[in-house]
Each structure stands twice: as structure tokens, then as C-alpha cells.
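Researcher: Structure for this, please.
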Amino acid sequence: MLRRSNGYFIYSTVEGVSFQPQDIPVGPVALALGGGQVAPGIKAALVGARPGYRIRALIPPELGWSTNPDLLPSPPTFATKRQLQVHAKEPLLLEILVLRVDGQTREQS
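Model: Predicted structure, C-alpha cell format:
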């Protein structure tokens, strides 16, 4: 889930979030941390993470999307990308549930 630092909702990959329109695709996002395509603040938050970790990271603008709006993870629709672009110059709060890392999967209970 991506929010402004004041809690204002921007985008989520979780189904059923009441603030998000029904037509926005949801589901897990796969990221490869190498190659420079992931926002540096998100990469730093994910390094060392294991399946099942819940991470809450405040991403400063210089480590987020302010310098490159095409960095991953990228919202899927024009409206969600626009929200990210409008707020890219402020700190953003990202909540992550790690499901898989290098072939490891989180055990479902």
C-alpha cells in the first residue's frame, strides 16, 4: 500500500481497499532488485527481507520516484501513476508484505 506521509491513500495491490476504484488491477508485484529499475528507497527496505516480513518504509523523495517516475514498482493505470507523480516530491509511506525471495515462499496458514 502506498500513502502520503500524512496517511492520504495513493495506491494498493491489495484487493478490497475501500479507497481504490474497482477497475484498478491488484495482486502481488514481482521485483528484481538488481539492474537499477527499483526505486532506491524500496530496494534498501527490501534488502535482507525474508518471506513473511512486513515492512513499513518512509521513502524520501530523493530515494523514490522524484528523479525517475518510471522506477518500479509502478502503479498500473494512468490515474494511479498521476497520483504518484503529483506526490513524488514528498516522503511516501510504503507498506510491503514479502511473499517470496529467491525461490523461497511464505508458508500459507
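Researcher: Any notable elements?
Model: The CA atoms of residues 11 and 21 lie 10 Å apart. The chain has one domain: 2-105.
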